[in-house]
Amino acid sequence: MKIKKFRFNTLLSILFTLLISINTVHAGILFEPLVGYALNGQVSQKFIEGGTTYKFTYTGIGYGFRFGYSGVGFMGGLQADMINEEWKGKEPLATGINDEKSKFNGLNLGLFIGYHLPSILRFWGTFYAYDKYTKTDDVGAYSKDDYLLGMGYSLGIGVAPIPILSINVEYRNFMLDKIYIKADSKLYKLDKGRDVSKSEIFVSVSFPLGLSSK
User: Fold this and answer.
1) Which fold would CATH assign to domain 2-212?
2) Region 151-167 average pLDDT
3) CA distances from 55 to 40, 91, 174, 196, 208 (A)
C-alpha cells in the first residue's frame, strides 16, 4: 500500500509541475479520446525461478484518452488506457498453464509528453506508473479476479491529416512484478526472473480536441 501511495503521489506531483510549466506559454486544454487494437502482443514468464519460460501471444481492443495541456507544439498530461486481451499459449505448451486461451482486462495509467511538428507528424512518450491486468476467466495458471501489477512505457508516432484526427502507432512495454491472488486475499512480489514481461504494437485513431485557455 505504501508503494502504491508513493507512486500515486509522485505521479500527481510530476503532472502538476508539467501543467504549470506548459501553462506559462500560450496553451490550451487537450482532451484526446482514442480507440485501437493491440497487435503482436508478446508475454513471457517463469512460474518457478530458474524454470521454464512460458510464452504467450495476444491481441486486444483498447480505448482510453489523453488529458492535459498543449502549447507551441508541446503537449503533456495524463494518459489512461483500458484493454481487453486474449492470451494464447505459444511455446512450450503446458497443460493448465498456456494450453488454452485466457482473458485479461488491462488498466494503464501514466504521464505523457510529446511534440506536434509544424507538419502533420506527432511524437510522444508515456511513462505508465500503474498497470493492472485482471483475469476474467478461470482458464490457465491464474483464477478469475487474480491480477498482475507493474509499470511500463510507450513510444508513439502519429499522423494528423486534419487537426481533430490522428492515426497512431505505439510500441508499448510492461514489466509486471506483483500478483494478487484472490483465494489468498494477498498481494505477492514476483522475484526477478519470475516477473511477467509484456510488449505490443498498439495501432489507434485518436481525436485531439483542444480548448484555448487564453
Assistant:
1) Porin (2.40.160)
2) 95
3) 13, 5, 15, 10, 36
DSSP 210: E
Residue with cell 484526446: 32
In this structure, what DSSP letter does residue 81 have?
A: E
Q: Are 132 and 147 in contact (CB under 8 A)?
A: yes
Break the chain into its structural domains and give their ranges: 2-212
pTM for the whole structure: 0.82
Q: Determine the Cα angle at 119 with ends 114 and 121, to 5°.
A: 45
Top mean pLDDT of 12-21, 90-99, 167-176, 188-197 is at 167-176
Q: Cell 494528423: give the residue.
A: 160
Is the separation of the CB atoms in 208 and 30 below 8 Å?
yes
